[in-house]
Structure to design on (417 residues):
C-alpha cells in the first residue's frame, strides 16, 4: 500500500545499500502499520550532483518521502517516522543531520492496489482475508 | 491542474504505451473532474532495475501517483481512482496486482497554474471563463 | 524542512538556472515560513522528452511540487505559492502558462530532520534554540 521514495545524489548509496534500505523500510512499515511486505514499495531517485540543493547550494541529503493511508493512530505514525529515520542512518551511514523523512497521507479510498480499494487503517485483516477468498487481485 | 506521476523500471513501458497512457489519464481526469485536458500533466519516471523494490526485493510495479484539489465529492474521487486503475492495466497490459494508484490532495488555493490560483472544485467554469476574459494565462 | 521538487524535460533549465532557482526558492521559503535556509531542500527531475505530457501530448511544463508542514496561516500559504510561482517565471523565463506550482502538506510530527521531529508552524524558534542547546542534530 505505501510507497517510499528515497532521493539522493547519484552514487551516494551502493546497489547493496539501496537493497538493504528497501528491506529495512519494508520490515519497519510492515510491522508498525500491519501491512504485508508484499504491499510495501520502495523506489530510489538517483539524481545528478547539480540537481540537488540544500540552503541553495549543491548538497548530498537523503530525502525519504513516504505515503500512508490517513487514519493510523497518532502514536503509530510517530513511531513509524522515528523508526524510518533511525533506519536511514543505521543502514546508510549518512548522519542524521543530512536525513529528512516526510510522511504524507491521503484517505485509503483514494488508493487502489491489486484492483481493490485499500482498507481503512485497522481493517487490513478483513481486507486481506476477503482478497484470498475472492481469488486475489482480480477482485 | 493535476499531475499524474507514473513510476516504473526502465523499458517497462514503450514510448508508444507511455503516450497512450498519458492520453487515457488525461481523458479520464478531464471527464470526471471537469478540467480541460490542457490542464492535465502526466510524467513518467523510468528507473534502473535496482532502484525499485516491492517486499524488499527488486520488482516491476506500475506506481501511479496523482495530485488533485481537495473538495471533490467523494463519489467522484472514488470513480476517478477506479477508472485510472482500470486504464493502467488496460493500456499497459500490466496485471492489476502490480498496479498501485494513489491520489493525494491539497487545497486548490495551494496551487497556481498559468499565473492564477486554482479554483475550488465546482468553480472551474467561472475560473476558465474569467481567464479568457482577462486575456488568459498572463492574469 | 520543506522539499521542493522541480520537474522538467531534460535541457529545459541550464545548470546555472537550476542553481538560481534553487537559491530563489530557498530565499522565499526561508523568509515567508520562518525556516533557516539550511532546512530548505530543492531537487530537480530532468526527464526525457517523451516522459512529459500535457493534454496527452509531449510538452515542456515546469512543474514545482512543494511539501510544507500543516498549519501555517492561510495568508502565509497564499503568499508562499504566489511568490514561488512568480520566481519560477522570473528566474527561468518560462511563461506562466507553462508553470504549475502545487504545495502539499502533512502534519509537522510526520516529519523528522536532523534526528528531531519537526516543530509545528510558529514553534520554529524554540525548536532551533533547543537544537543548539542540545548539541545539535544528534538530539
Amino acid at each position: 500500500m505505501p510507497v517510499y521514495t528515497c532521493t539522493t545524489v547519484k552514487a551516494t548509496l551502493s546497489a547493496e545499500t539501496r537493497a538493504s534500505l528497501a528491506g529495512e523500510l519494508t520490515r519497519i512499515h510492515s510491522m508498525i502499520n500491519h501491512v504485508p511486505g508484499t504491499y510495501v514499495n520502495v523506489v530510489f531517485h538517483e539524481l545528478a550532483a547539480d540537481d540537488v540543493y540544500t540552503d541553495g547550494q549543491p548538497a548530498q541529503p537523503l530525502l525519504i518521502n513516504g505515503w500512508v493511508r490517513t487514519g493510523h493512530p497518532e502514536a503509530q505514525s510517530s513511531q513509524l517516522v522515528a523508526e524510518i529515520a533511525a533506519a536511514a542512518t543505521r543502514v546508510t551511514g549518512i548522519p542524521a543531520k543530512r536525513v529528512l523523512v516526510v510522511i504524507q497521507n491521503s484517505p485509503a479510498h483514494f488508493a487502489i492496489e491489486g484492483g481493490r480499494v485499500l482498507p481503512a487503517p485497522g481493517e487490513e485483516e478483513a481486507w486481506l482475508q476477503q482478497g484470498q477468498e475472492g481469488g486475489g487481485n482480480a477482485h
Notes: The domain at 3-111 of chain C is CATH 3.30.429.10 (Macrophage Migration Inhibitory Factor). The two ends of chain C are 16 Å apart (CA to CA). The first strand of chain C starts at residue 3 and ends at 9.
